[in-house]
Design brief:
Layout: E1 6-8, H1 22-31, E2 34-40, H2 44-56, E3 60-64, H3 76-86, E4 91-100, H4 108-125, E5 129-134, H5 137-147, E6 160-162, H6 169-178, E7 181-184, H7 194-202, E8 208-210, H8 232-243, H9 247-262
Parallel strand pairs: 1-2, 2-3, 3-4, 4-5, 5-6, 6-7, 7-8
Length: about 260
């Protein structure tokens, strides 16, 4: 029996750091068993870049959205553009959207308005969301608690993912209760990430995704290098060890979770 595939549910493969060797990056990913990759956008130009890559390469999908650090000038006209882009083939989610209180790039009220507008867009288009959260767990949960009950029936069991999860156990538990999935990245391999590993070890198996968040957050084994989808194997192996299952079983479970959440073929 062949090894189960891995799905990198969050990699910024459109970023310039991949321009010189993107084809080789994809070849290495395939050799490592990573057959499918989701590229989340952060602004309108990256929406188009993600769509172009999804149309050019088999196994690549796009998410359309405006990142909280890019939403200072968010307006209704931008939402209209997102709506058009999100209806194109290859789009599987609205994202990367959310809240970021670490960087002072956009006022909190503006971030919250942009998030709420894009959540409404996701509901209208019946697409799950890819959520960014940095030091904003309480406000993010408050917004999600108001939105989740209004989501259409088609989304109730696949609302979205809190990507590159790094918040508290309480945030994790509440997000899962609401119906969200958690995405785990390279930091679960870092030496001082015991709290994060404890969360990854205890949440329900059907609420786990793995992702690289490349080019950022390379796993400990390759820390300091540009991250890429082939390194997803290190995250899968660590998660499997934490949960007491084989890497094959972990890959199978997270791939099934990704297929269900993003309605992948």
């Amino acid at each position: 029996m062949s090894a189960p595939e891995l799905i990198d549910t969050h990699c910024h493969l459109n970023f310039h750091s991949y321009d010189d060797d993107r084809a080789e990056v994809l070849k290495r990913a395939k050799c490592a068993g990573v057959e499918r990759i989701i590229i989340p956008a952060i602004d309108l130009p990256s929406c188009r870049q993600a769509l172009d890559l999804a149309e050019s390469y088999r196994g690549i999908h796009a998410a359309i959205g405006i990142h909280p650090n890019s939403c200072k000038d968010f307006a209704a006209s931008r939402l209209d553009e997102l709506r058009v882009l999100a209806r194109r083939q290859g789009v599987v989610a609205i994202g990367e959207i959310g809240l970021d209180y670490y960087w002072d790039k956009c006022p909190k009220p503006a971030q919250q308005r942009a998030l709420e507008a894009q959540l409404e867009l996701a509901a209208a288009l019946e697409l799950p969301v890819i959520l960014h959260n940095r030091e904003a767990g309480a406000d993010l949960l408050s917004i999600l608690e108001a939105w989740a009950p209004t989501a259409p029936a088609s989304l109730r069991d696949r609302l979205g993912v809190l990507h590159s999860f790094s918040a508290s156990l309480a945030v994790a538990q509440r997000a899962v209760e609401l119906g969200f999935t958690l995405g785990f990245t390279g930091p679960i391999t870092y030496k001082k990430a015991d709290d994060l590993r404890a969360i990854a070890a205890c949440i329900p198996e059907d609420r786990i995704l793995i992702e690289t968040d490349g080019p950022f957050l390379a796993p400990q084994q390759v820390r300091g290098k540009r991250n890429e989808p082939a390194f997803l194997v290190y995250i899968n192996e660590k998660l499997a060890a934490l949960r007491g299952v084989s890497p094959e079983a972990m890959a199978r479970q997270t791939s099934e979770n990704a297929e269900q959440l993003f309605d992948l073929d």
